[in-house]
Amino acid sequence: MGRPRTPLIDRPRIATVALELVDANGEFSVPAIARRLGVQTGSLYHHVDGRDGVIELIRERVTEAIDVSALSAPTWDTALQDWARSYRAAFAAHPKVIPLLTTHPVRAPGMLDQYERVVRVLMDAGFATVDVMPLITALENTVLGSALDLAAPETMWEPADTTSTPRLSQALAAIGEGRADAAFEIALAAFMGYARGVLEGYEG
Question: Model pTM?
């Protein structure tokens, strides 16, 4: 038999199946991807560098949804906020990938390019080089934590009765829709306030 005109596997197909497995199970294996694609496990190694290579394919697939044009906004703070909101939305669509990706170094070219652009935004705004990565890390922690929060139940606290926790019950009753969104905007505003303070501190 001749080779099929359409290859059974390629990097986009591997990424799709791997992400589907993680979305469903929170994990994947190279043999499981091969079974889903109907090929031998060894065939995948012609396209990816083992498990780490698959993880970077997943990272690339998820981060394709981030709107990098936000980083071209006229002011650094608008650029950072818009990028953070888009970043959060991309990962909120696939919350089970977050624990997987955060335990592996970022090597995906597309994501490294995004970081390069964020670093440039901050440096061009006047932030000291030593402050740049701590700021990006803090913002990323806020974004990914909130993306996980979006996957959580709308109500995370369930007191057995109101008599033992009256104030908590009162506060819970006052929560409207969009608890996770409101919490994210509070955290983002706090981060931006801190970042602006750092920038102003250079001038003082």
Answer: 0.88
Distance (Å, rounded) from C-alpha 117 to C-alpha 85? 16
From 25, 44, 49, select the one nearest 33 (Cα to Cα).
Answer: 44
Give 42-49's long-range contacts (Cβ < 8 A, gap of 24+): 43/8, 43/9, 44/9, 44/14, 47/9, 47/10, 47/11, 47/14, 48/11, 48/14
163-204 per-position pLDDT tens digit: 888 998 898 888 878 889 999 999 999 999 999 999 999 976
Helix ranges (H only) for the chain are: 11-25, 30-37, 41-44, 50-63, 76-92, 97-101, 109-125, 129-150, 166-173, 179-203
At 130-153, the pLDDT tens digits run 999 999 999 999 999 999 998 887
Collect all residues with Cβ–Cβ distance below 8 Å to 119 and sequence separation of at least 6. 132, 133, 136
Residue 68 has what DSSP assignment?
Answer: G
**Residue 2: pLDDT band with limits 50, 70, 90:** very low
What's the rounded Cα separation, in Å, for the pair 201 and 19? 43
Q: Which two tokens stand for residue 21?
A: 């497995």
Are 199 and 125 in contact, with CB atoms under 8 Å apart? yes
